[in-house]
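Q: What would this chain look like folded?
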Amino acid sequence: AAIVRRGMSQTAPQDKGGAKAGRGRLLWGLGALAAVNTGVVLAAAQPGEGFGDDPLERIALRASAVRRGARTFAALAVVVLDYKWSLRGFEDRQSEEYKQALSDCHRRGAKLLLQLCNLQAGVYIKAGQHVSSLRPLIPVEYTSVLSTLHDDAPQSTLADVRRVFREEMGMELDEAFVDFEVVPLGCASLAQVHKAKLRPAQGEALGEAVAVKVQHSWMIQHTVSDLAAIKWVAKAIEMSFEGISVMWMLPLFRVNLNKELDFRIELQNAQRCAANFAGDSSVYVPAFKDGFCSKRVLTMEYIDGIKVDDKESLLKQGFVPPEVAGIVAKVFGEMVFRHGFIHCDPHPGNLLVRREPAGRSRSTRSARARTQLVVLDHGLYREVDDSIRLAYCNLWEAMIMQDNALLNRVATDLGVPEFAFLFPLIFTNRSLSSNTRLGETMSKEEKARVRKTMPAGFRREGFDIGKVVSFVETIPRDLLFIIRTQNLVRALCSDLGYLPRQRFRTYARLAAENGRSARSDLGGLRKWFRSVRWEARMAFMELLMWVSSTLNITWAKPDIMEDEGPSLVLEAAEDRVPASSFELADGSMHG
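A: My prediction, written as structure tokens:
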């Protein structure tokens, strides 16, 4: 509250008539919702697994649930009042003063939300991490502040770890391991990981090194009641701010959370991912140990590797960061274009780099065969429908081959025929009819031409934010998820020095390999002819890349080029976003 009180004490334009009455209605509404929330939380607070029928224990659990719910609504009330008070009286929503005041509100709200998440732990940290990952939709002040939740999750005590392991496995830690390190290797919102050594089997001198993932004990205590409280908070936010929609985030968050809380699903996902890449030595999934895995405990092979974004360590160990990024792009490209089974969380903590162990390499001459990407944390995957996967392959073929008929057909299949023109801008940062080489920045003349040819509602004059919202709401959820995942991969590859044109080439070849064979509208001869054209286009792209690398030619600045297509929509949106909406963050149109 002190954070917000200091901000609210700053000078702001005078309030207009009716504001006081509006704030009164707002407080009454928040109070009513808080009362309802208390009842819902009380009903939802039930003892989880590992809890007995002790009445005192049940009373303590329900009291804790109500206290957590009340703390949540108190934080909400402070943040809402801060926005209403600090932004009162501003008539020009495009003025620098208003934008600064709004940014200050965002930053104070984000800090308060960070404190709440750290205090409540469990579901709240997971929810905060979920919000921080929505960079295209959430103000940058929130995403940057809440991103620290990935690093600062609270730890379970050793006593809690022992209790969860005993309840799940029916044995003590000392019975399973000869050495169990007390300090965890890592700690996340749902669980923490410890290094240990299995007790050696008969005839073995040393036990195998393993990583033991143990769910936090508090997750089963408050998950249901915390979700109920968060739901009512979301309703209160929509009631308090006209034009703001947040309820859409909850259903997917709830489904994903339930999946992540069951480690048996993670085990199945990991085994399926390993099978998908069984013939590829550049990617590895750690093996799990039978007899030491359950709903809340996983025991897997210990891997000693370097975090994929630790460029300094990669260079010291002789790895080439752009080469590592190429493997990342290839692996996640295959998940999208070939398997339709996609890892949901490709952040650097879940990707390690190591040298391929001796005896596993298929080629001693290939530098890539000696560099191996280890994929961790398989708790959440998205299985994409085959029709969407193939449509996405065809979409890339249409963009590379500049095939307008195919682009329109794919857009129709995806349910957005009127938005076909947007796909090339989103994915390749150029229009379909562009003469610009793939990977280059559009010229000023071309950008001016694209602006003029954009349909009504997407130009600066008469920009309609509803058109953009309609596009996002209409396209299949699977495609939105693909866009989000590839956007995360794009950012990681860019940080490692992997140029956009290299990533485009990787995606284009994977799309061709996995999409053309399924095209039922092409006869055998036409497929062969299209294949020849495709290979010629790809060969030309590769020749350009070889020439540019040999002569040290830079066709485009990656950081600029990445924003070219989306910025054409953004600059039209800048002056037309409804006054009651949050500002669009920098880079918000990526994907």
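The CA atoms of residues 200 and 207 lie 4 Å apart.
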